[in-house]
Structure to design on (798 residues):
């Protein structure tokens, strides 16, 4: 057994992953997980903006009860494309491909992901899928809804279903490869001393997410492929005219697409676990419960898809079982919410921007989760199925949950990613604007939906107008709020205050290396001698253990 | 002392990638990666197996009729070919581990040959279906599906016979795509094996390609009885 000694970290490395190489080629052919994370950050931001544009058209159209801005056919395309882009090209890759890519190796003390080339490949596959989808949008768009229900999609729709499906099929493989890379990395690349129960909860959440990616995505891949062939060649297993069963499509589709919601929200929960613990400066209450609840959500998440079929000719007995299981998945989610709240208790809380997003997440996710229980109840679901109630519900999960976690995490790790601080005042201001705008957008939709306003129509009865005006007003506030971080984060890359290695004084491994980190993350392979969230005096948290006799001469690089 | 020498020796191995500590870690990562990939493959094929099971239960007579029209001898020969190729693949991995380069090259070449044989026989079968107008839907323009050559058991509707053939082509077609990828993969491995890249110290590419090859074989082991042996007794007995 080798002895362990410790050394003080240099606060900034002269040669880091950003300035190690220059030129377009050094970025496009990089195998560095941190650079790939930035490539993803750029591309998903583009798709987020595009999806946001479609959302803007939806809200403008719904400002008045008459369908006056867009024709019904155009409106169908607009909400479909909003859904496809936001779900498959923003929300699913958002946290795993950017923050996860950047942080998974750093948090476990590895030099890179296990398969750096596959990691780069996943980005190119994502781009290819994105381009195919953009082609579908430019060529004439797709109008089936992001759910592609058969037989409309296989037989009747006159839009570019095959191209859009192919885009999703292709981009799915980037998700599979990312998940595969994370699972293998977390299993085989942990630094000495980094045991499973010393892993940050962000890692547990990503491990659970990766399981869902790896087990779920191939099913949507084959489903979309069969759908495309069915449309192309008029052979069929989904179209009733060919003896097929459209409900089979719904089963296969939701077998992936329900767990896909957990692909979006689990990483966000991982981020929130980090934020709550670190900004309360306390170990997470019930670490193991929070860790295992991620796995429980991943497992239960695969057994609840039938709640999307309560009104689609599924048998009542199947409905009862799926209803029960959908209630059951609330348990691990509730464990997380209770444990985060208990973590806050008697913590030393500071309200920095990331923490505002984390607290926002808890509130919004709770509302989204509780309304999910309405939808899991067989009878209530019949009443609110295909209304704005469900639109509001899943936006509370996807935007209030996934997006808030993403923004919180982006701010929190921004000093590590960019080496610069974001402007704190603007950060807090925009977090509040986004929170207010979000609630104003989607809270009225619960009411409109409960009163019976159906989703996916460009016109509606005039009595719903007040809710829609509120919602559209909220959406403009939300959109404005989102522009602020987009501007100041870019601004800060050049003009922001230089960040220290550990600006928040935290124990995690990613904070025990320079900001921005060197290409191989750590100057020597670190040895972990502390538990996750084990707070110590700041000077001790600058220190990292190393195996005695390992060459420190590498460390000189940073001082030149 | 001996320990650190071993580490130094491994660190200088040309196949060791920079982000791994040693070859053992690299090997573990590669093989776990392949296992996880195979899990995704099971889920991918799983969607089709599910559709197959559903419609076989729903339309038993049509599926049995359609299945009976498949060529049992060709399917059986192909099954034997693939099982034998799994044996040669296993021997290739063993030869790499024990450093027998000549055996390794011979076994890899044999595996590729058997894989190509499988694909050739499959092509003959596909051609037979083409001749019998059994390509479903409008996959072949101007040559629509017709079940007139199939002996329909009582209760079998031609439309559902077509559905069987669609599932048959989807599953065996996807399997064949995997075979083609496998043959390509093994050709690359063969190229490097001939140059002596793999030995007792470093052989994980051979090993994980072997895992992939065995997986593709196992898919066929399931496809053969499900598609070919279904309802044979009904043809003669009932």
């Amino acid at each position: 057994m080798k002895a362990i000694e410790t050394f003080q970290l240099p606060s900034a490395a002269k040669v880091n992953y950003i300035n190690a190489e220059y030129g377009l080629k050094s970025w496009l052919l990089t195998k560095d997980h941190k650079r790939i994370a930035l490539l993803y950050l750029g591309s998903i931001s583009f798709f987020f903006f595009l999806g946001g544009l479609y959302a803007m058209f939806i809200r403008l159209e719904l400002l008045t009860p008459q369908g006056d801005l867009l024709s019904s056919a155009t409106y169908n395309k607009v909400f479909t494309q909003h859904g496809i882009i936001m779900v498959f090209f923003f929300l699913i890759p958002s946290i795993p491909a950017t923050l996860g890519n950047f942080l998974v190796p750093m948090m476990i003390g590895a030099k890179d992901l296990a398969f750096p080339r596959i990691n780069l490949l996943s980005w190119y596959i994502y781009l290819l899928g994105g381009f195919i989808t953009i082609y579908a949008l430019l060529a004439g768009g797709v109008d089936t809804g992001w759910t592609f229900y058969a037989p409309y999609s296989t037989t009747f729709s006159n839009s570019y279903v095959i191209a859009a499906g192919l885009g999703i099929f292709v981009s799915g493989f980037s998700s599979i490869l990312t998940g595969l890379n994370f699972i293998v990395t977390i299993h085989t690349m942990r630094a000495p001393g980094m045991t499973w129960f010393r892993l940050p909860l962000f890692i547990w959440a990503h491990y659970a997410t990766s399981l869902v990616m790896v087990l779920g995505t191939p099913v949507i891949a084959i489903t979309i492929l069969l759908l495309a062939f069915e449309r192309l060649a008029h052979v069929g297993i989904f179209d009733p005219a060919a003896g097929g069963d459209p409900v089979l499509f719904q089963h296969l589709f939701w077998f992936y697409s329900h767990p896909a919601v957990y692909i979006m929200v689990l990483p966000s929960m991982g981020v929130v676990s980090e934020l709550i613990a670190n900004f309360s400066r306390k170990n997470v209450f019930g670490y193991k419960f929070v860790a295992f609840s991620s796995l429980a959500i991943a497992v239960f998440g695969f057994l609840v898809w039938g709640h999307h079929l309560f009104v689609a000719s599924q048998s009542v007995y199947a409905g009862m079982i799926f209803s029960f299981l959908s209630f059951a998945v609330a348990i691990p989610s509730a464990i997380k919410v209770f444990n985060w709240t208990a973590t806050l208790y008697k913590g030393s809380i500071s309200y920095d921007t990331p923490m505002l997003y984390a607290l926002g997440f808890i509130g919004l996710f709770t509302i989204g989760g509780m309304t999910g229980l309405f939808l899991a109840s067989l009878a209530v679901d019949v009443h609110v199925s295909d209304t704005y109630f469900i639109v509001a519900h899943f936006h509370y999960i996807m935007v209030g949950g996934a997006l808030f976690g993403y923004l919180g995490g982006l701010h929190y790790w921004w000093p590590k990613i960019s080496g610069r601080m974001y402007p704190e005042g603007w950060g807090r201001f925009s977090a509040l604007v986004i929170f207010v705008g979000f609630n104003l957008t989607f809270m009225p939709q619960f009411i409109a939906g409960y009163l019976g306003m159906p989703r996916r129509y460009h016109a509606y009865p005039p009595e719903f107008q007040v809710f829609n005006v509120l919602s559209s007003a909220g959406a403009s506030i939300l959109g404005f709020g989102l522009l602020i971080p987009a501007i100041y984060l870019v601004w800060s890359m050049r003009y922001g205050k230089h960040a220290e290695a550990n600006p928040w004084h935290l124990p995690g491994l990613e904070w025990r290396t320079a900001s921005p980190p060197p290409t191989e993350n750590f100057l020597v392979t670190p040895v972990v001698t502390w538990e996750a969230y084990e707070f110590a005096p700041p000077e001790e948290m600058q220190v990292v253990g190393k195996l005695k006799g390992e060459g420190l001469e590498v460390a000189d690089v940073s001082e030149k | 002392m001996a320990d650190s020498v071993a580490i130094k020796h491994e660190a200088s191995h040309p196949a060791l990638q920079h982000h791994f500590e040693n070859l053992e870690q690299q090997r573990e990562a590669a093989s776990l990666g392949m296992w996880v990939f195979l899990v995704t493959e099971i889920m991918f094929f799983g969607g089709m197996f599910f559709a197959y099971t559903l419609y076989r239960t729903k339309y038993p007579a049509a599926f049995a009729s359609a299945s009976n029209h498949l060529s049992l001898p060709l399917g059986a020969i192909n099954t034997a070919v693939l099982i034998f190729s799994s044996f040669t693949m296993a021997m290739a991995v063993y030869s790499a581990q024990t450093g027998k380069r000549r055996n390794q090259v011979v076994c890899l070449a044999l595996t590729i040959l058997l894989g190509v044989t499988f694909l050739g026989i499959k092509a003959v079968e596909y051609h037979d279906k083409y001749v019998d107008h059994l390509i479903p839907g409008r996959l072949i323009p101007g040559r629509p599906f017709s079940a007139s050559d199939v002996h329909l058991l009582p209760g079998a509707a031609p439309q559902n016979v077509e559905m069987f053939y669609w599932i048959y082509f989807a599953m065996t077609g996807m399997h064949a795509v995997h075979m083609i990828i496998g043959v390509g993969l093994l050709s690359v491995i063969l190229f490097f094996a001939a140059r002596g890249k793999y030995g007792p110290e470093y052989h994980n590419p051979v090993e994980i390609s072997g895992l992939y090859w065995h997986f593709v074989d196992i898919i066929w082991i399931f496809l053969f009885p499900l598609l070919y042996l279904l309802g044979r007794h009904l043809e003669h007995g009932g």
Summary: The radius of gyration of chain A is 24 Å. Chain A touches chain B through 41 residues (CB under 8 Å).
